[in-house]
Amino acid sequence: MESLGNALHMLVQEPSVWLCLLTAAGILVYASLRARALDRLHADAAGFAADGSATHATHGTLTTWFLQMHGYHMQQSAHAAHSGSGTAYYGSQSQAIELSAAVLFPVVSSVALILLFYFFGALSWLLQLITLFGTTIALFYLFMPYLDSAMIAARVWKPLHTWLAGALVLLTILGWVLSGHWMLNNLLGASLCVFFVSFVRLPNLKVGSALLLGLFCYDIFWVFFSKHLFGKNVMLEIATQEASNPIATMADALHLPINPVRMLPLPSKLMFPVGFRVDAAHGFVLLGLGDIVVPAIFLDLMMVVDMFGSAARRERDRDRASPASRFSTLYARGVAGYVAGVVLSFVFNVLFASPQPALLYIVPCIVVPTLLTALSRKELKSMWSMNEADASGSRPYVSIDTVSATSGSDSEAVQHIAP
Question: Where does the chain cross the membrane (predicted)?
């Protein structure tokens, strides 16, 4: 008990831990709201393209508020995606993960992890190119609605928002490549999380449970047991590995008068300097993006169920006021469970003085309360096998059979507080 008290005392006094926790929870909630807003726009756009009228699907008040804050650009983009006219900056309908993909994802991620462990040096340039391409798209997606709203409010020439977004994305990526600063790393990581959650869906609880259970076992194995097979903690090695900076290599070859960082940490995790002292002696608090994205897509499904209701509850509530306007019970409990899970992972990190697989704590903390709530609602059976129309509330999903193996690097679920 004394050691547990000391661990809690240390965490309470460490601001970087709480900043990491608040940032992760904020990204998770923001990504879900952004995804729901995008779903609403695509539903309305599909109805408009079909018969010239919006579908008038019922949505939560939080989503409505979020849409109002984002202005009109997302709406125009969604209509463009369905009508075929104009440019759809926000893509088309989201993709639902099938059961086979959910089961295979931990296996594919494990293969990717092994390849990175043995060939990271040879693959570092390829990883940098993939990172630059992915973060460019994700940052555009993150910035565009706000810039568009600002342009409309300022009554400025509307196409200017595209140029401003391009300049902002370029400056952000250039600043990261030159400095490798942890704040810019976190911004890139956050944009990747938001983009992924906005366009990937779980169709039902069965697929969600399979995905979480598989990654739960994946995380535990690679953090706790990989050292016995590979001689090192493979997950920790990959999570803390830095790639050679191609800009530094180019600057040396061309004798350019710039001095960028030699090694560049990839934005596959959130990182906060311990005590906000950026040096090797103090280290960083790390949280893998997979510890945000995986719970976020599961909780996004819970938000959908809360907003639209399962088929059984819609039948029961047909003549009653819609529950969609109330803050989602499943989602709220899931978010609270997520915060508790991250806190527990940090506590045991300090308690055992070793990296912990965050999903070991996060998965039970979000799954147990949501399942108990669904069971008390008598919705567990319908949520387990609900079809894609139930999951979307108003529109079909586009199914996919496989998940890209390159996404495996985003599933790093390690936190580490250096001594």
Answer: 16-33, 99-119, 125-144, 156-176, 182-200, 207-225, 280-309, 330-352, 358-376
